[in-house]
Amino acid sequence: MPTRREFLLTAAAGALAVGAPVFARAAANTANAPTQATAVTQVFGDGVKLMAVALAYPEAVDTAALNAQDFSVAGRTVSKVFAARSVGLTPSESGRFVIVQLSENDADTSLQEDVYEGSPEEAKPQMQGGKPNWVAGQKMKKTIRFKDAAASITANGKTLNTAAVANLVADSFRQAEFQDATTGKTLKYNLFVPENTTQRLPLVLFMHDAGVTSEQTRATLFQGLGAVIWADPAEQAKRPCYVLAPQYDEIIADDDWRTSKYLDTTINLIRKLIREHKIDPKRLYATGQSGGCMTATAMNIKYPDFFAASYLVAGKWGADLVAPMAKNKVWWMASEDDLGAFPSFNAITERLQQQGAKISRAVWDGKWNADQYRFAYDDLTAERAQMYYTVFVKDSVFRPTDSRQGASGHRNTWRIAYSIEPIREWLFAQKKR
Questions:
Q1: What is the pTM of this model?
Q2: Domain match, 320 and 366 both
């Protein structure tokens, strides 16, 4: 029986269930030519990319009969071709789909579009005292949206344009709106509901940064891993949970430590979801990057008993305001190349330590592999602290092609931060008494 993910992806392609495969049928067989092409996207730490084109065939095709040279995608590099049972990146010996996988390293793969109110020059934030004069609750003149992926593919001489899009993991989120009678705000949000809802499960709240402020409900799902990583099938197999990813259309936190009414609206939404779903109120987890991290910090201050633990990535807040969260469980993550978050987190953790919080610190390398992060995590958590503060050593968050200018050190922190599995593991180990 197909998994829920396979069913969703198959439906996205408009395909029907098939019977037993017909073996030894090559894609070159004109009687079994592709009938539809679906663009397949995947979200990475630096955003969503078109990673494959799925071709639907009327009869099953053998992987062994396929030759990558028989397929080409305009403007892209074909890296692999294989048969599959559904629209996804899971190979099969045979199937009614042929997946033409594309190189992640191709240039200009971003699906992000900037939307301006007025001219791009007018949309630039005015600076005061070295910081943008954004005010929480205000609309931004530059917002982000993500266009649907599209491609033109040639298979054995036949050219098709993609007619559908399957967004891996992101498509498993439901979109909805919450009208909060208390604050008067209407909040768009994305909710992932796990397959097993017979028992109470944790909820992870992810809040995006100011850069992805948008009217497009799913923008937060496409910007990076902060939301989708928790809903990935491999992650759900280990740590099943609900995932809430609000989409804010205004500035939610500013550099004068003010927050939008959306802070309280988000808390009220979680309370509503707890009433409607089997969510464990003792295992609520908050995380966010940049502006989302700032809002999560403000939530920990205003509602210190609400979350079991928080993972706070590359944000900042007033150190003289954080005392109410001194008893909370928090993992702080910043980079030495982040000129805003790094000094702010230093001041915050020092102040919290003065308030009695037990904090363990470590300097990590953004270029480590999974085993190195695991070893470093084991060493750090052996200290059994209440809070942990890890910092990426200078220059380690950059790839060879990355600029070192502006906020690159800031943005590249969250590109890596959500890919470190031991921290996700730590978060889920925390539970309110």
A1: 0.91
A2: yes
